[in-house]
């Protein structure tokens, strides 16, 4: 699929603010609303736009709920065969507490970012993902005390 400057501008604009109306999006990019709608539909159908969501402020939500703990965990498996890696990955991505799951190299086999309510919530996560699986050799968990930056945007070279 070939992308032109309008496609790249649409992607960049949507990535910055996916809540913009089609009219506002068209104005920001400098195209007509029907063109913006058609192009965004094409980008979505091509799989370049995976979805749209609202990014919530974890700390403010935690203040309302009373708790909140972000966990970064390095997970090493005993056996790293393709089937073993795939099995752990399937279990991790199915778990509601896991927000991000990366297969990495070198070092541990996986890095997980998880959000739990509190330490008992982390303990329950650890039992589900790490201690019940005989193939998990080592886990190093880190608990966030402050998030200084969160920028999930993908760098776009065509803009």
Automatic annotation (TrEMBL):
The UniProt record lists the keyword Protein transport: no
Keywords for this protein: DNA-binding, Transcription, Transcription regulation
SUPFAM superfamilies: Dimeric alpha+beta barrel, Winged helix' DNA-binding domain
Domain HTH asnC-type: 3-70
Stated name of the protein: Lrp/AsnC family transcriptional regulator
Cited CDD domains: HTH_ARSR
Provenance organism: Ottowia flava
